[in-house]
Design brief:
- The protein is α/β, with parallel strands linked by helices and about 270 residues long.
- The protein is about 45% helix and about 10% strand.
- The longest helix is centred in the middle third of the chain and has 15 residues.
- The protein is elongated.
Length: about 270
């Protein structure tokens, strides 16, 4: 089945040109392998604003991007062989990392937006409505007869808690080994908290900034070519690749959202 992935991030080669499409490598080469599933036919970067943009209450807000349904419709028009899609997003948006959010509520919001879409082909909107009806009828979110299947015209969600970098930050030792500073005293290294709500900004980014101040600089700094803000996908891909090849690989393989990714991919 031709299944594509939409995930928060950018695969704009103007930002990651030195190392190619690191977003695709991150997911297809590393995370799909960790989950034991086939790679996606294509990986497309999206923003959280596109998901929020499907909410009628967000319509017309300044700076709000067109809804995810519009982006999905555009990709379906460009490649009519696409049969199903997975959409992955951070539960906590970067503009409010400490807010109160619910994965179940966000999933329902996704399907409401898709079901009400006038941009999507009718069969995709209808499939979203069927899924929304099934989810809304549950007494509890966990009340499901079986894991969902990737069928034609379906979109399945993969909500990452709190955000993708929570996967990386689950082990300071693993990050240190991946960045090549294991056993070293690194000036200004962040105080590590595994359950940090904003691990990208408070843990991973400052850890990488430390590398740029080291003398001599580690070779991987020149390999990536920029800091975490401008080369986020490159750094995420590097850390995931290194962790998976080392003694901490179970940190990724056994992570809840990798388990959910495997569950989705196994039923295609």
């Amino acid at each position: 089945m031709n299944v594509v992935l939409f995930v928060e991030g950018s695969n704009d080669l103007r930002l990651n040109g030195r190392n190619g499409d690191s977003l695709t490598r991150l997911w297809n080469d590393h995370l799909c392998g960790a989950a034991g599933i086939q790679p996606f036919s294509a990986v497309y970067g999206i923003s959280k604003q596109q998901l929020v943009g499907m909410n009628p209450r967000a319509a017309g807000l300044s700076g709000m991007a067109p809804g995810f349904d519009v982006e999905l419709a555009r990709r379906l028009s460009a490649d009519q062989s696409v049969e199903a899609a997975v959409v992955a997003w951070d539960l906590h948006p970067k503009w409010n990392p400490t807010g109160t959010y619910c994965r179940w509520s966000e999933t329902l919001m996704l399907y409401r937006g898709l079901a009400a879409s006038t941009a999507l082909p009718s069969e995709w909107a209808a499939a979203a409505q069927i899924r929304l009806n099934e989810l809304s009828a549950r007494g509890l979110p966990s009340d499901r007869p079986s894991p969902p299947s990737l069928e034609r015209n379906t979109v399945l969600p993969l909500c990452m808690e709190h955000m993708f970098e929570s996967l990386l930050a689950s082990s300071e030792a693993a990050v240190r080994r991946a960045l090549g500073v294991d056993g070293l005293t690194v000036k200004d290294w962040p105080s590590w908290r595994v359950h940090e709500h904003d691990p990208a900004r408070r843990l991973v980014e400052p850890a990488i900034e430390c590398l740029f101040r080291m003398r001599p600089k580690p070779r991987l700094v020149s390999h990536v070519g920029g800091g975490f803000v401008t080369h986020k996908n490159d750094w995420n891909e590097l850390i995931v690749r290194e962790v998976l090849s080392g003694p901490d690989s179970a940190r990724i393989v056994d992570h809840p959202f990798i388990k959910r990714l495997g569950e989705i991919g196994a039923r295609r």
